[in-house]
Structures are given as structure tokens and as C-alpha cells.
Specification:
The chain is an alpha+beta fold. The chain has helices at 11-26, 59-65, 68-74, 123-146; strands at 42-55, 79-95, 100-116. The termini are far apart.
Length: 153
């Protein structure tokens, strides 16, 4: 079911595009591109190890959905225990010619909390996307801090 609710290209390609968008919004670099090395003097690589989410079923939301809009509204705040793990490793910045500029190491984050739930178990996708935003925010700050001592050409 997981892959049926995301776009048809790979999860890693989708995550890469999302990370590039976050890098650009945060102005981490002058400008970040996805798979376009012809216009950049540097490139960032990493390995996506884990993008995982699980969440408990909400009986309350399921019962509420049987009562139409009023039932859905009554149970709109339903939450169930969930766990989301995002793990990337070997985060490295290279010059265009392949020379290593900075090794940022690995970045792992696990979220264990009550997450918004719905009657049809679709909320896990939104919850994972929201946690990916949070993850990227922390990753950007890690990279920004680690880049403080790097001199760019």
C-alpha cells in the first residue's frame, strides 16, 4: 500500500527533490539543483537508508466516519501512536572534479509520538511528509553549522 500512494518514481528521487526544495528555501547554498551537474561547482551525495512509518488504527475515527460529516468532525482530532524513522548516511560535499570538500557523516531521526489519525489510514502519509520537513530543517542546520569552517572557491 505504501508505494501505491506516492508518485510512480522512486522514493529516493522524491526525497531528493524535496531536500533540494528545502535547501533552496533555507538558502543553504546559492542555489541547489537536482541531477544537473552542468551548472554547479559542487555536488552533495548521500545514501537514504530508511524512510519508514507505522501508525496504529483509529477505531474512533472509523466509527465517526460512519456518521458522515458530523462524525468526521467529532473525531477530527483523533490520534494514535506512531513511529517514523528517517535515516541517511554518507552525506558528503564534493567539488565538481570529485575532490571531497566535507564529510557530514550520518543523520538519523526517529519520531515516536501520537500522530493525527483518520478512518482510512491515509494520515500516515501526511504525517511522514510533515516529519520529513522537520527532518530536513534539522539536517539543514547541521550542514550549515558544519560548513562554517569551509572556504568555497
Amino acid at each position: 500500500m505504501f508505494k501505491n500512494n506516492y508518485k510512480k518514481d522512486s522514493v529516493s528521487a522524491q526525497m531528493t527533490r524535496i531536500m533540494v526544495e528545502h535547501f533552496n528555501r533555507a538558502k543553504l547554498f546559492k542555489l541547489s539543483f537536482c541531477n544537473d551537474s552542468s551548472v554547479s561547482g559542487y555536488y552533495l551525495t548521500c545514501k537514504i537508508n530508511y524512510f519508514y512509518g507505522e501508525q496504529g488504527y483509529s477505531t474512533a475515527a472509523a466509527v465517526g466516519a460512519q456518521f458522515g460529516l458530523l462524525g468526521a468532525l467529532a473525531t477530527s482530532g483523533a490520534k494514535t501512536p506512531g513511529k517514523i524513522i528517517i535515516d541517511i548516511s554518507d552525506i558528503k560535499l564534493f567539488k565538481k572534479d570529485g575532490i571531497l570538500v566535507k564529510d557530514f557523516g550520518d543523520f538519523y531521526k526517529e519520531y515516536k509520538e501520537d500522530l493525527s489519525a483518520d478512518a482510512y489510514c491515509w494520515c500516515i502519509y501526511n504525517n511522514m511528509n510533515e516529519k520529513l520537513k522537520d527532518y530536513n530543517t534539522h539536517l539543514i542546520e547541521k550542514i550549515r553549522t558544519d560548513l562554517a569552517d569551509v572556504k568555497f572557491d
